[in-house]
Amino acid sequence: MEMRIPKGPEYYDQVFSESQAYQIHYKHSPYFVLWSQILLWLRQLEAPKILEIGCGTGQLAHYLYDEGFGDYYGFDFSPKAVEIAKQAVDQSFAIGDAFEEAPYQFDYNVAVATEVLEHVADDYAIIKSLRKGTVFIFSLPTYDDPAHVRFFPAGGQVVQRYRGYVQFKAVHLINRWFACLGVIR
User: Is the pTM of this model over 0.85?
Assistant: First the structure.
C-alpha cells in the first residue's frame, strides 16, 4: 500500500457535518458492537479515568455516560466533531491535536483511541504521548479506505507493529475491526 498523506481537520469537519452516521444515536452506529467490547473492558477496571483520543462526535462518550462512566475527557482536532459532541452529551470535550502535549494533561489512567491510529502518519508519536502503565484500548480497521494511512488484514500485524510500545492483553476481531487491550510500556 502506498503511503498516503493524512487528512486534516477540514476534511473531517466536512465528513462529520455531512454524514448522519456520526450524528445518530450510538446504538444505531455500526461501531456499537466495537464500543460494547470497550465497555466490557472498562467495567473490569477499578475507577477508570478515561482519556479519549479522537473522540469524534461523542458517540462513544455518550454510551459511556449512559453506562455510568463520567470521569471522561475527549478531544479531537475537528472543531465540528467537538461541537456536535458537546451538544450530544454532558461529558468534557475539547479541540486538541494528538501530537501536542496539552490534551494529555487530563488526569487519566485509561486511554481510548478508536479508529485513530490508522489515520495518522506517526502513530507511534501518539502512543509515546501516553504515560507508562496506562491501560490502552484502541481499534484498527481490517480494510482500506481513502482516509487510512494503514490498515491491518491480520491481528498478528497489529501486535507486530505496536508490541514495542504496548503490552497486549487482548486482540479481538469484531466485524471489520481489531479491538485491542493493552498497557503502555
Answer: yes
Tell me what pLDDT residue 5 has. Answer: 86
Q: How are strands ordered across the β-sheet holding 135-141?
A: 92-95, 72-76, 50-53, 110-114, 135-141, 177-184, 166-174
Encode pLDDT of 144-165 as tens digits: 999 999 999 999 999 999 999 9
Looking at domain 9-184, which of 3.40.50.150, 3.40.50.11290, 3.30.70.940, 1.10.10.10 is its CATH number?
3.40.50.150
* Bridge partners, 178 (sequence order): 140, 173
Q: Which of 139, 141, 114, 128 is nearest to 53 (CA)?
A: 114
Burial group, residue 64, by CB count within 10 angstroms (0-12, 13-18, 19+): buried
Kindly give, in sequence order, each residue whose CB lies less than 8 Å from that of residue 142, ignoring residues fewer than 6 positions away: 151, 152, 153, 173, 176, 177, 178
CA distance 141 to 8: 19
The CA-based angle 47-44-69, given to 5 degrees, is 45
